[in-house]
Amino acid sequence: MNDVYDDNDLQRLYDEKYFSTRSRPPMWVRRAEFIKEKFNPKTVLDVGCAYGELVKGLTDLGIEAYGIDGSDYAINNSDPSIRSKLFKVNLNSDPFPFENKFFDVIGSFYSVEHIHNIG
pLDDT (tens digit, 9 = 90+) per residue, 42-53? Predict the structure, then answer.
């Protein structure tokens, strides 16, 4: 038995049914404002970004923000204005798509429980 989630598993688990109720954008706007006030970052990565609502909030505040998520569905249904800042990455198997030390802040909200092998 292979106990590592492969890409087929991720697509099956995090499809349209999983995302049938979209996140609450005002919550992500408040979180973006808090991140800017608390850390004043130039660059931010949201790990497990789903639709990229935090990335959108940070971008609207003038911060260079990016997101990674394992779901093709979520990224393909994100706001078109930020879709180029979102990357489909299976953190269980794919290489990290950014240079070391590129980000001032890396956050992960409601997502670490979906990463199978942290190490």
Answer: 999 999 999 999
* pTM passes above 0.85: no
Q: Report the distance separating Cα 109 and Cα 27, nearest Å.
A: 12
7-16+36-110 belongs to which homologous superfamily?
Vaccinia Virus protein VP39 (3.40.50.150)
For 70-85, the pLDDT digits (tens) are: 999 999 999 999 999 9
Task: List the structure tokens of 86.
Answer: 């979102």
CA distance 25 to 95: 29
Q: What are the sequence ranges of the domains in the chain? A: 7-16+36-110
Tokens of 7: 């890409």
Other C-beta atoms closer than 10 Å to the C-beta of 62 total 9
